[in-house]
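User: Hey, my collaborator sent me this sequence without any context and asked if I could get a structure. I don't really work with proteins. Can you help?
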Amino acid sequence: MMPTNQIQNIVHKLPKNFIWGTATSSYQVEGASFTDGKKASIWDDFVRVPGNIKNGDTADTACDQYHLYRDDIALLADMGVNAYRFSISWPRLLPEGTGTVNMKGVDFYKRLLDELHKKNITPYATLYHWDLPAALQKKGGWPNRDILGWFEEYTDAVIKHLGADIPNFIVLNEPAVIAYVGHYEGIHAPGIKSAKAMYATMHHLNMVHGKSYRQIKAALPKSNVASTYTHFPIYPVDDTPESAKAAELMMSIWSDGFFSPLFKGEYPKNIIDAVSPYIKAGDLEICRTPGDFLGINHYCPDYAKPVNEDIPARLTFAHNAGKIDPIGTTDLGWPIVPKGLYDALIDLKDRYNPKRIIITEGGGAFNDAPDKDGKIHDQRRIDYYAAYLEAALKAREDGVPLEGYFAWSFLDNFEWAEGFGPRFGLVYVDYLDKLKRMPKDSFFWFRELIRQTKLIS
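Assistant: No problem. I've predicted the 3D structure and written it out in structure-token form, which is a compact way to encode the shape of the chain:
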């Protein structure tokens, strides 16, 4: 375990009301993919295409939080977190995407929310964490502007049936991943490889955020409503002008294509021509909706290089960190660069000046297994969190309005195209033994950190 003085280095920089949470998403942990009226999402379809997912894994069962949620929330309470970020499965609530509401799905989320409230854990509910109903994909999915109406109906169902128990809404999770990885690279669902689909999706995501924000605030004016975005430095992979231009374009596609509409009601100049076919009169005013806080997910920096395609930039996770020196890599090969988080937060403050920021995801894949006594000594994860929290709190000291941190992830889970191989959890899940939960050393480290934070006078 990390020495107590290192915990103190973090604690003394925190306000007593700092938000401590962990995060999951519906498709990654719930399981019960076709139970009690739920129908397929795009991920249920995508995982069934040979070659899409490592080892042919699916999340049909995942961590089975659908049935084990009480045990999980008891663990959250034991850890001492004051917030839990989860997502609502659109096809569990509306199996066809629109139309009849599935009351068995509603009842599950009511039970989950009731249990959280009983344990004094504040819910942060994400409306969309990538699991679009498959029925809507058949109608064109995110590139189809009709998504604005479909999402409005979905949001209305959440408000009507669950809204009274949800004080914090996150409309969208990582829209850049949805647009770029799912609709340009095609390595996430729905597996589309098209620049036009990517740019249409980008604009429709920005519109959905603005419209859903207004819709929720009109019905539940006391709620906090925001979206959460992936943000990290993007460096040129080398010193050539071509790579510098690629990095600039990639930043526009990945970050500023969302932040600029969000805060300024405009798109970056180097992508506006590509997005403009999808913009209608009045759209940009709707997009200009900063939200009640800004959610940021951050893991590591990235690197851009030019390619001979319709978008002359490609994201590449670097196993060597190029111009910066990582303190190590995770078991996914992602560089560990705490300064990247500091730089990302300062960049947001300087260029967009958000009033409130919450880090809604952060963590690393470290695949430590139980020892002969059943203990999981994941010191590398503890070191990762200590370093990244120090960087985040340094940014807070330098003027970033940081209010909270959610560790990704509460549980080991299904990690999208990587399947069940990477383990991000504070809690180990034994996939071979009835999905047994086993808290890791990092779980207890966080528990002590949170305990000491609460002692701040």
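In plain terms: The two ends are 25 Å apart (CA to CA). You can pass these tokens on to your collaborator as they are.
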